[in-house]
Write a structure and sequence with these properties.
The chain is α+β, with helices and mostly antiparallel strands and 172 residues long. The protein contains 5 helices and 8 strands, in the order αββαββαβαβββα. 30% of the residues lie in helices and 37% in strands.
Length: 172
């Protein structure tokens, strides 16, 4: 047995801990070798903007996606408003998505976020299709601005469901 393997693992572990910003909130994914972080400022912007609208609103989640060996590290850096919809439906127009992406070319699209004002946190059939567009490691959020409940998912599987303030205080 060589000493190189354990030393390399320790170095990789300490390196990946420092990848995300110090203000990023860690979210337990339940997925081996996958770490998810959401910057506190991005989450606060999303929640504050969502509370300004009575109808559903849609956002894009922008950030970084990096592989370190077999480990995937996702960090949501920026959440930007794309569109306002009706009381129970929102569509993300291609032109608006392109505008948001062009404004932050250094970031990748990791997923989407939207609201369900007064309806709670769940995935509708349309939501599930939208989540699948971003793949099994797409970062997808849904927020009910009236109850304050937030859902964070990888693909369509919720990895956090609860009060937004609970996540903002220290992660899940």
């Amino acid at each position: 047995m060589t000493l190189f393997g354990p030393i390399l693992r320790v170095l990789m572990r300490s390196f990946t801990r420092r990848i995300h910003a110090p203000d990023a909130i860690g979210v337990a994914t339940g997925v081996p070798r996958c770490k998810l972080y959401i910057r506190r400022e991005a989450l606060q912007t999303y929640v504050l903007m969502a509370r300004k609208y009575r109808n559903e609103v849609g956002f894009l989640c922008l950030g970084t996606r990096a592989r370190y060996g077999r480990k995937l590290v996702l960090e949501v850096v920026h959440i930007d408003l794309v569109a306002e919809g009706s009381r129970a439906y929102v569509e993300l127009p291609a032109r608006e998505k392109a505008r948001v992406i062009a404004a932050r070319p250094e970031l990748a699209v990791l997923g989407w976020a939207h609201t369900h004002p007064g309806f709670g946190v769940f995935w509708s059939g349309t939501d599930r299709e939208n989540c699948r567009d971003f793949g099994e490691n797409g970062v997808n959020l849904v927020f009910d601005p009236l109850s304050g409940e937030l859902g964070v998912a990888l693909g369509t599987r919720f990895v956090f469901r609860g009060p937004a303030r609970q996540l903002a205080r220290g992660g899940a």
